Structures are given as structure tokens and as C-alpha cells.
Amino acid sequence: MRNSTKLIILAVIAIVCILFYGFYDIKGGFDYAFPRRMLKVSAMIVTGIAISFSTVVFQTITHNRILTPSVMGLDSMYQVVQTLIYFFAGSMSVWVLNKYLNFGAAIFAMVLFALILYRFLFRADKHPVYFLLLIGMIVGTLLGSFVTFLQVLIDPVEYLSLQSRLFATFSNVKAELLFIAIGILFIAFIYGYFIMGKLDVMSLGRENAMNLGINYDGMVMRILILSSVLIATSTALVGPITFFGLIVANLSYQYLVTYKHSIHIIGASLISIIALVGGQFLVEHIFELRTTLSVIINFIGGIYFIYLLLKESRAAG
Predict the structure, then answer these.
(1) 288 by DSSP, 3-state: which?
(2) Distance between CA atoms of 273 and 291, rounded to whole angstroms?
(3) Tens digits of per-residue pLDDT, 275-287?
(4) Which of 41, 89, 309, 314 is deepest in the core (most CB within 10 A)?
(5) CATH 1.10.3470.10: does it fit domain 3-316?
(6) What are the residue ranges of helices labelled H in the chain?
């Protein structure tokens, strides 16, 4: 089956999931319920595309399909920012009540953290990929322990308010922030369109890419910034979903056999839309909101992550 046909199949399934989520059991107040459902669907689409785009390009420059920006500790930095705000300023501070300030502070801190981390770890490919994975997980664990320490000291009422921000949710998405996220995603797509061919060349490796005229180190830094901005935007919009990028990117690699990044990004984006919209439908109508989508994704993603590690280990052996 051709890749174009496979993409059409994914697109049809995604559209069916969106329509099913939007119209299922919408009794009575259509004018009230439908716009709110579509707002959540829009947030899922933006989040899914941003995570898919950032993960695919990130794995290209790291030459490894296990590493993702989230696995490297970026989601943990989001939790640190929110916890520090609640710990020092409180839930009634302008940093919490003003959605633009909170959104901007989270993105700025996460991008800054990513640039510092990437600058030291990825420069000139001086570290093996499993060392990077180990460092990323250690950093993520360290930040998580720091967050837990602050949460023990925080006021219980503030802690309950903080918890709603530390798990991914599509129920409280602000339309104004969604428009900002769409604008960031649009700019990223414009830039990505012009570098797509270079990404295909960079997948050949550093030496081959440089021999073909690519400014490899400069492109790596620009792509890292792009990936960091996208993952920071999606996390600041709905909250952290740690293993989601790992799942959709690797499913795209297995389903679509090609070297072209444009096809993999589209495929991963469609898979992410299906997973998010379909998963949210199950959470709301099957599990009746007794759990959250991020918990399900992280559970499945953790198992899939272990499977990929064992698969890579067997391949190396």
C-alpha cells in the first residue's frame, strides 16, 4: 500500500473521531455543548501536531527513536515553574490569574532550560545517545524530586489548586491561549517547510550531511530551538504528556516506510489526533471522567518505552 493511501486512511479515521466526539450524545443544549467540544478538539489538534512535529525533528538530529524532548526532562521543567509560582506567589497571584503571564513564563522557562541542556549535551555530537538519555532521565528525576519537596511544604489548599495544572487536561483550555498556540504552530510550519529537505539530508548523519553542504551544527541548534518552542507551547497549553511524542512518532515510522520527514510529520500528526480525540472520548463517555487522558497515555507510553529499549538492546546485541 502506498504511503499516500495510508495517509488518506489516517485522515479519514481522524475526521470520523472528531465528528463522533463532537456530535455523540449531544442532547438538548447543542449551542452550548458543541462549541465547547470543538474548542477541546482544536486544542487536541494543536497539541498533537506540535508534539508530533517536535518529536520527529528532535529524533532526526539525535539519530535515535527513543529520545524525545519530554524524555529529556522538558515536561518536568513545566512542573517546576508552576510549583514555584504557587509556592512563592500563591494561587491568587497575577502569575496564576493572568493566563498570558503564566503561559509566557512557562514557555520562556522551558525553552531556556532546553537551550542550556542541549547546548552542553548535543554540541558537536560529543556524547553517545544513551549517555544523553541517562542524563535526561536523571535531570527529569531531579526536577521531579524538587517539585515533590516543594509540594510537601506548600499549603494544602494551594496544593489542590496546583494539581489541576500538573496533569494534561483539555477541559480548561482558554480560547485566547489556543489562538496564540495556533500562531506559533503556523510560524513553525512555515519555517519547517523551508528546511524539510535539509532534514532529509541530516538523517544521513553528520559527516554525510556536511559533505552535502549542510551547516550541520547551525541547523541542529535551530531545530532544537524549534522543537523546544513547540513542545513548550503544547505543554503550557494543556499540561505535560510525557510519552505521547514517543508513541506517535514510532508508530508513524512503523506504518509509513519512507525517509521523507514531511510524510512522517503528517502521519504522526494524524495518529496523534486519533489518539487524543479517541482517548478523550473514552475518558468522558466510557470511564466517565474517573481518570485523565494523560494517565492513560503515560501508562501505555511507559510500557511502549520499555518495549523500544528492549528492541534496541536486542538489535545492538
Answers:
(1) coil
(2) 19
(3) 999 888 888 888 7
(4) 41
(5) yes
(6) 3-23, 30-62, 74-88, 94-97, 99-121, 129-153, 156-166, 175-202, 206-211, 216-238, 244-255, 261-281, 293-316
